[in-house]
Amino acid sequence: MTALALSSSPRRRWRLPGTATGWFTGWFLVMWIGVVVLPLLIISAFSFFSMRQYQIVYDPTFATWTSLVETGRWVVVLRTIRFAVSVTFLEILVAFPFALWLAKGCRSAAVRAGVITLLTIPFFIDASSRIIVWRSILGTNGVVNNLLVGSGLIDKPLTWLLYSDFSVSFGMFGSYFPTAVFPIFLTLSLIDDDLIKASADLGASRLQTLRHVILPLAMPGIVGGIVFTFVPLMAAWIEPQLLGGGQVNLLGQSIQSALTNLNYPVAAALSTIVIAVLVLMLAALVVSLRGRFKMSSLFQSLDR
Amino acid sequence: MSTVESNDFGMSRRSFLKSAGVSVAFAGSSLGFASLGFAQETVLHAYGVTTAQMDDPSLISKATGIKLEFTPTDADIGVFMRDALANNIGETHDIMIFDGGTQDILGPQGFYAEIDETNPALDLWDRTPDFWKKSDISVYDGKTYGVPILGNCDAFAYFADAIGANPNGQDEIPYSVLYEDDRTRGRVALDRVFSQSLACMANFLKVNGRLQIEDPANLTPEQAKAVVDYAVERKKAGTFRTLHNSFEEQVQLIQNREVDVLECWEPAVKEAEKTMKDKAPVYAYAVEGGKKWGHGAYVPKQALERGNGEAIYKVLNYFLGGEFRAYQARDRSYAGPNMDLGVEYAEKSGWSPEQVEELRATDKKISRKMSNPNAFWAKPTAPHADVMEQEWQRFLSA
């Protein structure tokens, strides 16, 4: 142990770190506590106060927390978790075969570079501008409905294409697809091709190679993809705002609404819930993978 | 013990640091720069909603000799109150422009100064109608804290063909086309902001005798619950297509003809007219009136302590004058006090007869809407705003 290590003596007194790594680790921990942990604690503390005439009343109360139940904001919490889980699941389901093709199936380096670039380019554009375009495509008088009605496939426009669970999920899927693909792609790229060939030489079918060789080795990337997709989805705001049209109310919008009214305690309580959900979900992920996968291998290239 | 975060407008820590900084700067300037003595244009700093900002700010400078540097904000009451109360914006800005109602809180707390109605620079005050200067834009508890500068009565826009109305737009249309009309079911857009949608729905229920409500803009917990119960029922009946959140969304909903009726701002219709011409929707004269609102210009106490009073009152007077009125009506369809001066200005300045006639029409239109006895005044800082916001979440979550 290098950072701010405790003495192994019975008196357990603090010692200054003796190495540069120790100093940097200590400095990082102090900064992390100051910049990340402390603000989160302060946010949580604010949820136990209340507001009167746009000013905070520093009188501890559970009123904010009980109001979350009374006003149905808890439904929003459950709905947000449902969206985050289902979209993350879909992302990984599609991202894995795509990343596998990109890492192992695509033989042309130029095509691979082109695909990665194409995945990245949309993110040079502001998210709102990127998402709002879909309104003109999915709307009642949008491109899709015009094509469907014009071709005689349907009699009247499909209203569920926009301002619905479908449109929000669709928007989220597009936005977070690269964050699901890239970690998986990077891990798959690191798998030695000789291992796959050896599996085939030993008589394994493609499915067996996938199940017993590729999947276990790709697990760090899959877990990374889940984390990098699920976490931002819990706070997604633009897709439900622009494609949900008020019919799909998620946590990000609920927090925004509270802040608009300068209701810091409610915003703080909702933010606390987001953090708690994230911690619980990540803990569940770690527990469910215990014995089969080391979280530290998420950063396996660092071990080399 | 209950402790409300206090805001001492005397010598706060921030003020002290600023004073110290000013002292150091003054000492520095007296050492080396005292003799420069340039003739300087008076500069004031305004903070407020963009709708009050002139497209061409040089007009104010030419008319008053004062350069008004504008820091814009949107219509978000939370941001405005945060900047006023927590960020103490009065230390850096001389005029604040926002929806009427902020004076209810910032006036008694000593943040806004009372308007000196006898100030010689404010020579248009006496001719300004009481409808504006004694309104909820300016007055709280008998004291005048703001100068009314523009206003309108918000209702909704509709495509006449969808509800079988006369396309000349002169009919009075009931709010039921938004809530209960089978012809528009599923093709209605509401404003996502509760102070607009919830209040207008409450006013509809009040005017039609379905609920006992004193002030639709300030609903008690019981009233807010009853109105939201109704809103949820209509939502479940599939009445609403979407809730919009911005001016751009309003324009897009109109231009894509995604809905037939929508709560929106009048400039959204004006914007749509640029491309849709006579296919654009009509902005309604509502049977139930609508939501009257206005922007006021308020003076932070610190601005007067800085000795900017004379310049500030010149600008306040400009807001009551013809030039400001004419440009606001032409560019945004908004009216305000002393509209006759706007028409006079346009005539003297050589505006075309059509433009002058349009100003007269705007005046007549706003007067008609504002005089509807069913219309109610907006209250952005309603005492029950937190209850209304919480109940509105129930509607959004349903």
Descriptive labels:
heterodimer, A: 304 residues, mainly alpha, MetI-like fold, two-stranded antiparallel sheet, 13 helices, B: 398 residues, alpha/beta, D-Maltodextrin-Binding Protein, domain 2, 2 domains, 6-stranded mixed sheet, 5-stranded mixed sheet, 43% helix, globular
Explain what this protein looks like in three dimensions.
The complex is a heterodimer of chains A (304) and B (398). Chain A is mainly α and 304 residues long. Chain A has 13 helices and 2 strands, in the order H-E-E-H-H-H-H-H-H-H-H-H-H-H-H. In chain A, 31% of the residues are buried. Chain A has one domain (34-49, 56-303): MetI-like (MetI-like fold, Orthogonal Bundle), CATH 1.10.3720.10. Chain A has helices at 20-46, 63-70, 73-105, 109-120, 127-138, 143-150, 165-190, 193-201, 206-234, 238-244, 251-260, 264-288, 300-303; strands at 50-52, 55-57. The two termini of chain A are 19 Å apart. Chain B has 398 residues and is of the alpha/beta class. Chain B is built from 17 helices and 15 strands. Chain B has helices at residues 13-32, 58-64, 77-86, 103-106, 130-133, 160-163, 176-179, 194-207, 221-236, 247-255, 266-276, 301-305, 309-319, 322-332, 339-348, 353-370, 385-397; strands at 42-49, 66-73, 95-99, 139-140, 143-144, 146-154, 156-158, 172-173, 188-191, 240-244, 261-263, 282-283, 285-286, 291-298, 376-377. In chain B, helix 9 (221-236) runs parallel beside helix 17 (385-397) and helix 15 (339-348) runs antiparallel to helix 16. Chains A and B meet through strand 2, helix 3, helix 5 and helix 11 of A and helix 3, strand 10 and helix 17 of B.
